Amino acid sequence: MSCPHCEKNGASGASSFSEEERKNGVRIALAGNPNCGKTTAFNAYTGAHQHVGNYPGVTVEKKEGWTRCGEQKVLLVDLPGAYSLTAYSMEERVVREVLAPENPAETPRAVIDVIDSATLERGLFLAVQIRELGRPVVLACNMMDEARKAGMSIDLEKLSARFGVRAVPTVARSGEGLDKALELALEEAAKPCEPLFLSYGPDIDPALLKMTSIIKDRHILTSRYPARWTALKILENDEVLRAQVKAADAAAALELDALRDTLAEHLAATLETTPEAVVSDFRYGFIHSALKDGVIRKDDTKDRLAFTDKLDKVLTNTVLGPLIMLGVVYFMFWTTFIVGAYPQGWVEDFFGMLGEFMSGILPEGLVQSLIVDGIIGGVGGVLSFVPLILIMFLIVSFLEDSGYMARMAYMLDRVMRAFGLHGSSVMPFIIAGGIAGGCAIPGVMATRTMRSEKERMATMMTLPLMTCGAKIPVFLMLTAAFFPENQAGIMFAVTLCGWAVALLVSLLLRKTVFRGASTPFVMELPPYRLPTLRSIITHTWERGWMYIKKAGTVILAISVILWAALTFPALDAEKAAPFEAKIAAFNEEIHPLEAQLAEVQKALESADDASRPALEQTAAGISAKKDALEEEKAEAENALASEQVKNTFGGRIGRFIEPVFRPLGFDWRTDVALISGVAAKEAILSTMGTAYSIGETDPDEPDSLSARLAADPDWSRTTALALMLFVLIYSPCFVTLVVLKNEAGGWRWLFFSMAFNTAVAYAVAWAGTLAGNMIWG
């Protein structure tokens, strides 16, 4: 993105930047509260010119990107969403360390603080602290379009004058005002900037002055932080900064702590409060005074009860809210199956015709088997569910962008607490697949915002039990095969089962492995918004493309590997001989019958009415005998194909573990698919497609995997139910395991997750088998 203001006027103040900054870019930080539109602004500025990584020492995502303002190159840093610079969470700690790094050369020259215009007072609380830290700030008052619709007007000139910073109206979604904000940030970056000085009243100021003097005199962290700011953070009982002060000067740290403790005792005795509360109150008092006398005006003709509040009275009602939420989830599944059935059928037909076509042009042998059974049977089976996946992602994107997903999290908070979890666990669960179609990997990463390590660990260990997008194709295939009359209901039940097991397992873990007290939870409910078509399509395509790309890369590779595992080594000639002899004997009987049938059919072409009935009767007799022999021959060929596959590496592994899973009704082919699912859950479907394709002896008549399983006498509704429950719960995929290991901080949690989840999955699937036998026999 290039800034037209700078192109017209020149990058004001650019001459104040160093040669390195003019060449390599001026560092500007984007700060703001969660859900203020900061990342939308970052994406608008940088487009595809982004780099995503992690900040050193923590697992918070780091995003940087490049843009230009006229001739000046700018490096933008998208800081994590935070409400404060006090290091209560990883995000707040990262924001502070980026704004005041150990290496002064990495300090951002200015900060664009993105603020939701509808909650200006709360957004300015962070801006005050950034100014107290001594960083130049430009306020990007975002979502001004929504503020105007709500009848709100903000006098930005008055706000700028009273607050001492420059303010710009912006709409990040459309890009309005972003160029101007960047131009002003560069101007502010080129000027000297003194820290904001606030008075904190007669109780705090004297102690603050003494503490500031000690810090200045001893030069404690003064190259990194303003002395008064350091003193404030000690008063606010910031554990991270207190540790830094102690490391720099242990004796001074004792003096400073003594002053803080004396003040804390005085405030507790006289005002029944704490230093942290007083500091916070005075900051909000400063903000309130800056906003009074017409800075914010509201149209009194507008309905005082906002549309969002009216809607929330119904959608988050104690009784109606959960019922509506369940209805929304069921509607999502119902729509997915009803609307998606047609395009899914087209895709299945396409891959069926493609397999038939390739079988016709390729000679029988390994190449034909690789293409038809390995690649088309494996990858094609996964891709046939793309229409259903896209429809589901479309609905999920709408729920997210509209603001309803946050309401679901709010309502589920009450449930979470009953099972030893935290309200902030809700969004990781939803992201991981609590509303089907998510992914455990970003869900695990989303737990970084949780302050309690015990609650975070319990949440991380149970997130893989959700219905992630990779499991959905397996469920869709099995419901199509065995529950065609109630697919939506079965999917709805599987999703609820995932929640039920996850909550029960969480309670068990919180009572045993991760014991500890619960922490309070506060969450922000964004206003309802009508999502833009572009936003929904973009989010749907991004998720859908990840699924397709995985099918074309990871699943393709796994399909080829599994085809080889289910093809080699070939059956010994000695073992194959009896089968081949039997097939040859059938051929010797069938070929003469084919010749006889051809002669009779030729005679029928010229037969008169008198002789036709006898010829037709003869043809029917020959055809019936031929069909019976061909059916027996097909059974012999299937027996040979089955023996060949059992003899392969994959077959040997599957048969070795088959006794373990036989009580659940799984045969060796299903067992091999479950092993491949540890690599990637999508591979379960492709492996079953490959295994059952190789077992087929007529490649000219390919059926979908659903049709094959439905026709297989070894499969039943009970088997399908057990497999769905097992896939839902058992070991996470390899990538999720690696992320769990990194986030939890040890290999033991990787192995714990594999073993514990698989054990729980076996128990639940076994219970499902018993229930299925009682229901369906």
Automatic annotation (TrEMBL):
MF GO annotations: ferrous iron transmembrane transporter activity; GTP binding; metal ion binding
Region (Disordered): 1-20
Main subcellular localisation: membrane
Similarity annotation: Belongs to the TRAFAC class TrmE-Era-EngA-EngB-Septin-like GTPase superfamily. FeoB GTPase (TC 9.A.8) family.
Pfam families: FeoB_C, FeoB_Cyto, FeoB_N, Gate
Entries under Gene3D superfamilies matching the protein: 1.10.287.1770, P-loop containing nucleotide triphosphate hydrolases
Coiled coil: 583-646
Parts of the chain that traverse the membrane: 314-338, 350-367, 374-399, 419-441, 462-483, 489-509, 551-571, 720-740, 749-776
Organism: Mailhella massiliensis
Residue ranges of every copy of the FeoB-type G domain listed in the record: 25-191
Job of this protein: Probable transporter of a GTP-driven Fe(2+) uptake system.
Keywords for the protein's UniProt record, in alphabetical order: Cell membrane, Coiled coil, GTP-binding, Ion transport, Iron, Iron transport, Magnesium, Membrane, Metal-binding, Nucleotide-binding, Transmembrane, Transmembrane helix, Transport
Ribosomal protein is among the record's keywords: no
Name of the featured protein: Ferrous iron transport protein B
InterPro entries: Fe2_transport_prot-B, Fe2_transport_prot_B_C, FeoB_Cyto, FeoB_GTPase, G_FEOB_dom, Gate_dom, P-loop_NTPase
Membrane topology: Multi-pass membrane protein
An annotated GO cellular component: plasma membrane
Cellular compartment(s): Cell inner membrane; Cell membrane
